[in-house]
Write a structure and sequence with these properties.
The protein has 329 residues and is α/β, with parallel strands linked by helices. The longest helix is centred in the middle third of the chain and has 23 residues. The strands form three sheets. A seven-stranded parallel beta sheet has the order 3-2-1-4-5-6-10, with helices on both faces. It has a three-stranded mixed beta sheet with strand order 7-9-11. Helix 1 packs across helix 9, helix 4 crosses helix 5 and helix 10 packs across helix 12. The N and C termini lie far apart (49 Å). InterPro entries: Epimerase_deHydtase, NAD(P)-bd_dom_sf, NAD(P)_dehydrat-like. This is NAD-dependent epimerase/dehydratase domain-containing protein. Keywords: Oxidoreductase.
Length: 329
């Protein structure tokens, strides 16, 4: 049985796991989820544990007793090894996300994603870690001109590396190469690696900074104009992603890669849903149809036991979170 899993009716022993990039949007909810079970000691790997932006992690329930933050740059093998030491499992969430146009994208975005992944996996193998859950993205699935139209893409599809370079999709390329490197390492060494590919991750904020996926929605809501583009997007709640990651770690049957997407929603539908909970905001009134995103299926993950919350719950909680942070004002 994978560390952290327990048979029905059986009390699981305390397990120690590491979460890389622990202060990020997905990782923060993952740390919260792990601590809330009462069954995990968590090593949170961050660049600087003393940075005030990580205060939300220290305030989580159970953090005082079962969360330890490690200073660990993913490009520093010794620091990574220290964070992973003594762990039964590792969730590799950290990945470079460019906030502006990189001068040298291969060096600044792509190479660090792959090298950091390899450092984490090497440390896991040396430490005798039982399972690694690698957080990828549907960006590693759908950026491929050969994908036929009209089908829901599954885990067999991969983004085309040359095409990613052609369109200068450096984040897409970094996620594709890093996930391929993780699964290839597993094949070569026998290390148990499971990858999870979330779609557009939204939800309430735990951290004080706004992450890129949330910023996309916020910028749309702040657009200020009457007219806005309307396309169907693949949405998933960040808390459901955290559940999926824990499931991928705990389920003995988990293997390979899993797409994590809850439901398709057009931007017009998203705005209508948010308006119900925040009616006094100024929203676009005219929506111009543009090409929809590629659609995905999470049947494999659902067969493992994954469930997701309703869009109404997600966006109600988003509105409350954004209002509390002063974002929608």
């Amino acid at each position: 049985m994978v560390a952290g899993a327990a048979a029905a009716g059986e009390t699981a022993a305390m397990s120690t796991v590491c979460v890389t990039g622990a202060g990020g949007f997905i990782a923060s909810w993952l740390v919260h989820r792990l601590l809330s079970t009462g069954r995990y000691v968590v090593h949170g790997a961050v660049r600087d544990p003393s940075d005030p932006k990580h205060a939300h992690l220290k305030a989580l329930g159970g953090a005082g007793e079962r969360l330890r933050l490690f200073a660990a740059d993913m490009l520093d093998p010794a620091a990574v090894a220290a964070a992973v030491a003594g762990c039964d499992g590792v969730f590799h969430v950290a990945s470079p996300v460019p906030t502006s146009k990189p001068a040298d994208p291969e060096r600044e975005v792509v190479a660090p994603a792959v090298a950091g992944t390899r450092n984490v996996l090497a440390a896991c193998r040396d430490a005798g870690v039982r399972r690694v859950v690698f957080v990828s993205s549907v960006a590693a699935v759908a950026v491929n001109p050969k994908c036929p139209a009209g089908i829901d893409l599954d885990e067999e599809w991969w983004s085309d590396e040359d095409f990613c370079r052609t369109i200068k999709g450096w984040y897409f390329l970094s996620k594709t190469l890093a996930e391929r490197a993780a699964l290839a390492y597993a094949e070569e060494t026998g290390l148990d690696v499971v990858s999870v590919c979330p779609s557009w991750v939204l939800g309430p904020l735990l951290q004080s900074t706004v992450n890129n996926s949330s910023l996309t929605l916020i910028d749309y809501l702040r657009g200020g104009g009457d007219t806005a583009d309307d396309k169907v997007k693949n949405v998933v709640d960040v808390r459901d992603v955290a559940d999926a990651l824990v499931l991928a770690y705990e389920a003995p049957a988990a293997k390979g890669r899993y797409i994590c997407r809850a439901y398709p929603m057009s931007m017009a539908e998203i705005v209508d849903t948010i308006r119900r909970f925040h009616p006094n905001h100024t929203y676009p009134t005219n929506f111009v149809k543009v090409q929809d995103e590629r659609m995905f299926t999470s049947k494999k993950l659902q067969a493992l036991g994954w469930k997701y919350r309703t869009a109404e719950e997600t966006f109600k909680d988003i509105v409350e979170s954004y209002k509390a942070a002063g974002i929608l004002n």
